[in-house]
Amino acid sequence: MQKKLTKLLAAAALGLAFTATAASADPVTVFHDKPFYQSGWDGLTAAAKKDGIDLNFSAYATDQFQAYIQSSLMSGEAPQAFTWWNGTKLKEIVDSGQLAPLDDLWAKKIASGEYDASSAAPFTVDGHIYGMPTGLNRWVVLYNKALFEKAGIAKPPATWEELIAAADKLKAAGITPFNATIQDGWRGFVWFQELLIRTNPEAYAALNQGKLKYTDEPVKNVFKIWTDFYQKGYFTDPTSQEEPLDFARGKAGMYLFGDWVIGLVEKGGVKAGTDFGAFIMPNVDPSLPNSVIVEGAPIVITKAGMENPDVVKFADWYMGENAMNSWATDPGLYAGNLKAKTPNPIITDLAKIATDGKYNSITRYWEASPSEIVLPAVEEFNRFMTNPSPEQAEKAMANIEAIASQYWASHQ
What we know:
D-Maltodextrin-Binding Protein, domain 2; about 50% helix; alpha/beta; Bact_solute-bd_prot1; SBP
């Protein structure tokens, strides 16, 4: 009982510390749980100061941050601006009724040519936009130009048939086609989500809404393709803990991942656009609409925040060219502003491809499906990747469905 009381008092003290900071601080303060971007936050603060905006970023550990935001929303005393996640996690706090819709701000920025309307999709809930992007990261396939040349592949694949042909040519040249691991424990869903949207995007949406079972045919088809790829030797060792560096070292010809990994790959001594390029994975069925997984991380503003002229000024500035030029420099993230510079030439090319091809943005599995399902599902995907047999695939589907069916039975 004493330990429980101590924890409660500590949590209350933390909440009071947050509230006091939010209430007494003169600058516009954005709360977040991303201290690894500290130099980037500092760059934004300096850029804002030049434009007459007093800005501050306040970092906290993720678990404390989430607990505080959720409790402060319940008490009606949330900070005026803070970072969050998209998908189901964003909808949960939108449902509190305290977030401000940013439709007018986005309409202004789209009309000015600074943003494409598709950039708002990851932050849209029930027809309204509730976030300003700290990142808009497309999940694409990086490819090693030298290895493609060695294997006799003239250009990046534009169809599924060309993708398989490229994989076979790489394999014949003694090169593993795809880089894929379970590094850090969360990456198991990467190929699962991609294969499902490339075969049946409607099934992907239904699965994340509890309207499709993990034992239904569309999911079985994904595991069939996935298993076949493993049997053909298309994948690298799944247990490596140096996935981005493995690709930089030439251990595979292609690498399916979020484009935010480009900077990590470059730390291996290769250069984006020169040594490696990128393409959006083609659909298995060419009649399907163009689509791409987009991972979006927003800054949200409460209704109370939108009553503060300084916060309104900050929001308009943050989505502008000066702020986004700073953000593209450090930490080197693309956040959708079409007039700002992009971190590297690959991001530039991908943005153009996505816009010209009218690609639909699809929410990443991690944010699209409830966490109560995602976390155990990823463990099952990981087990499959380390033992990619038909039997393990069947176990994975059955085990995930047991968890999903129990969840949806109490949430629909």
